Amino acid sequence: MLTGDLRTHPRQKAEVPVMRRRLLALVAALSSLPLALTAAPSAHAADPTTMTNGFYVDPDSSAKRWVAANSGDGRTPAINASIANTPTARWFGSWSGTIGTATGAYVGAADAGDKLPILVAYNIYNRDYCGGHSAGGASSPSAYANWIAQFAGGIAGRPAVIVLEPDSLGDYGCMTQAQIDEREGMLTGALAEFNRQAPNTWVYLDAGNPAWASAATMAQRLHEAGLRQAHGFSLNVSNYLTTAENTAYGNAVNRELGARYGYTKPFVVDTSRNGNGSNGQWCNPSGRRIGTPTQLGGGAEMLLWIKVPGESDGNCGVGSGSSAGQFLPEVAYKMIYGY
């Protein structure tokens, strides 16, 4: 191997032609290999799970904050052991302040500990347009484009897992075709920003859940929103359907993608609240239970806690009187035991 500055090492100058001939021979040999060996399996060659040592536990999650402020509460030990110390996604939106600073600080802290952070981008224009419980988001498509570009820029080259805009592709029921086209354009633009600025991320475009849209419908929506640019898609975010149901649905979506568009993608499942499955309700149903903690594999590429157990879905169900995202300790406590 050549070392140092060639300008100050005359002997090494003579070695350069020899090395150049060897390199050219190597390139010629490689060029004769089948193309399949050089084809990238996804939008990014980097694998953030191999660049880190386990998942990052958010030190400022709503569960962590509640535990810290309520050391004398009888529910605290269980919530601390079963929820607060499980790696869970942090959600970013209009509440996050200067977004590039916020994402940069979060992935920087994870990177310092050699851990893989999970982030949720949740700020699309006309967010939750039909459901309403989590309505809001950026003020315009252009404002969203600027926000998501800064989001990606804050992450830069550090490893991360991104869940992109939960509910955005299931939420079509009351939208016009022009609004649908606008939304899909925003998602395609977001994926382009992550590809450009954050090369060591895996971005999962959210695909709702099995109870929302058929596999064929969701495959079309994913493709039209730019899924080919993403690493994969996410399922069951903030929902309660079992891992088996989601795995079957994800596989069905992939069959549709393969048949229609000639490609498939990995998927992840939110298992934070699906231990008892669903009772058919999505908004703070009673009797639910925490599921399999965050891990690689498990029927999907990863099982992730994307929604913090105990955080409200909105002013509904056992969370009556609460707002979306508010931590409800009694709901969290009961979710640990499934009642």
TrEMBL record:
A GO term for molecular function: hydrolase activity, hydrolyzing O-glycosyl compounds
Position of the signal peptide: 1-45
UniProt-listed InterPro entries: Beta_cellobiohydrolase, Beta_cellobiohydrolase_sf, Glyco_hydro_6_CS, TAT_signal
Origin: domain of life: Bacteria
GO biological process: cellulose catabolic process
EC number: 3.2.1.-
Active site, UniProt feature: 167 (proton donor), 313 (proton acceptor)
Keyword vocabulary terms for this entry: Carbohydrate metabolism, Cellulose degradation, Disulfide bond, Glycosidase, Hydrolase, Polysaccharide degradation, Signal
Enzyme class, UniProt record, top EC level: hydrolase
Name recorded for this polypeptide: Glucanase
Origin species: Streptomyces flaveus
Lineage: Bacteria, Bacillati, Actinomycetota, Actinomycetes, Kitasatosporales
